[in-house]
Every structure is written in structure tokens, then in C-alpha cells.
Inverse folding.
């Protein structure tokens, strides 16, 4: 697949002769352009509406936009401000995070977590959700380092992987390799890259790729249909 195909959506549609075929190709080309934009807007709009529906019931009635305007103008005013719940949610979450950074907040969190650990079912749910949240939202340098190619599930078959870190601790100590250098590699599944396998490979068996993590993820999600442009300097 050439670089031009990524610049012109029309190249994604196979050309056919005839008026009807031309109209069909134009329609499909337009669909290729419009669908991602429309789906993105719809998804964002739906998430905002869901947050509004969840947060707004917790806001006291006198502070709802309708009631505030009714108080100011002295008449019934119907208004629906999309995203007000999102603003309240962001402010509240930021305030909680600010409190949690302080000594009092850390103490309260520690006491609460100690109580949760004593609850048989709740502690399993809480620990799992907390681990996921810390992995996704934690502001740290922990992330996949590079995309790579590895031979998996057997020699001669290649798979896209993401290099996590150098193996450490007991794993590095127990596994003996020629170079004594072991990498942990996450091998995602298609079309859902959030599931996959965590495997360990000697560095010599891992081929690092120049493409970005995002481009490699697109390649996996599309099942090999969307290749990033590549310029071979050799």
C-alpha cells in the first residue's frame, strides 16, 4: 500500500467503469470520509450525555440552569446545556485529586483502603478497578517503548508486539539467555488490542520497528488493512 493511499480516501475504493459504478465509488469514498468523523462526534456526544445524566441529579435543584434563569427573568425558561455535568465532574474530580495529595487526604484514603481490604468480595473488585485505573490514568513514564516484530506462535510466523520493559527480578534471574538480556513483550490480539499475551523474548529475537505505537496499533486493529507509510532509507 503506497503513501498516496493515505492522502486520498478515493484510493481506498476500487474504481469500476460505468455511471452507476462511478456513483457507487463516490458514495463509498464519501462514506470513508464521513463515517469516522460522524462516529467520533456521536461517541463524544453520547459520553457527554451519559455523564450529564449521571452527574446532574446530584446537583441541587436551585442550581440547575433552568431554575437559575427562572429566578433571574421571573418566567419559565427551558434550557438544556449539554456538557454542564462534564464541567461539574471535572471540577469535582480535580478537587478530590487536590485533597488526595495532602496529608489529610492520604490518611483518609489509607483508612478507607484498610476497611475495604477486610471485605471479601469488595476488596477483589476494588483492587482490580484500582489497578486498571492506575495503569490507564497514572501520570508516569510507564508505557510501551517501541513496536516490534517477534516470531510467534512459532518460528517463521511473525506477529506485531509492543516492548514493555527489560525483564527484572525473578524472571530475569531464572531465565538464562545467551546475552542475559530479556525483554517483556505484549502481543495484542485482533481486532481488540487491549487483550493479548505477555511474553518474554531474548533481545536478539526481537526486531524493533520504526513505526510509532499508534501506527502499530492501527495495523493490529485493522487486521493488516491499514499500513503506515514507510520510507526505506537504504
Amino acid at each position: 500500500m503506497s503513501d498516496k493511499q493515505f492522502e486520498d480516501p478515493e484510493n481506498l475504493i476500487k474504481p469500476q467503469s460505468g455511471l452507476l459504478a462511478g456513483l457507487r465509488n463516490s458514495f463509498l469514498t464519501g462514506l470513508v470520509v464521513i463515517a469516522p468523523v460522524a462516529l467520533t462526534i456521536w461517541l463524544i456526544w453520547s459520553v457527554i450525555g451519559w455523564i450529564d445524566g449521571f452527574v446532574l441529579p446530584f446537583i441541587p435543584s436551585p442550581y440547575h440552569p433552568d431554575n437559575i434563569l427562572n429566578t433571574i427573568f421571573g418566567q419559565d425558561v427551558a434550557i438544556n446545556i449539554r456538557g454542564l455535568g462534564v464541567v461539574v465532574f471535572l471540577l469535582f474530580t480535580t478537587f478530590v485529586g487536590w485533597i488526595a495529595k495532602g496529608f489529610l487526604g492520604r490518611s483518609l484514603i489509607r483508612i478507607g483502603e484498610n476497611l475495604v481490604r477486610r471485605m471479601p468480595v469488595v476488596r477483589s473488585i476494588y483492587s482490580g478497578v484500582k489497578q486498571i485505573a492506575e495503569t490507564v490514568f497514572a501520570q508516569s513514564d510507564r508505557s510501551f517503548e517501541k513496536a516490534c516484530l517477534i516470531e510467534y506462535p512459532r518460528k517463521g510466523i511473525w506477529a506485531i508486539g509492543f516492548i514493555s520493559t527489560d525483564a527484572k527480578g525473578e524472571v530475569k534471574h531464572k531465565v538464562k539467555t545467551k546475552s542475559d538480556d530479556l525483554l517483556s513483550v505484549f502481543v495484542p490480539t485482533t481486532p481488540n488490542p487491549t487483550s493479548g499475551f505477555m511474553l518474554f523474548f531474548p533481545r536478539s529475537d526481537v526486531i524493533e520497528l520504526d513505526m510509532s505505537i499508534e501506527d502499530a496499533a492501527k495495523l493490529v486493529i485493522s487486521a493488516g488493512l491499514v499500513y503506515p507509510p514507510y520510507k526505506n532509507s537504504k
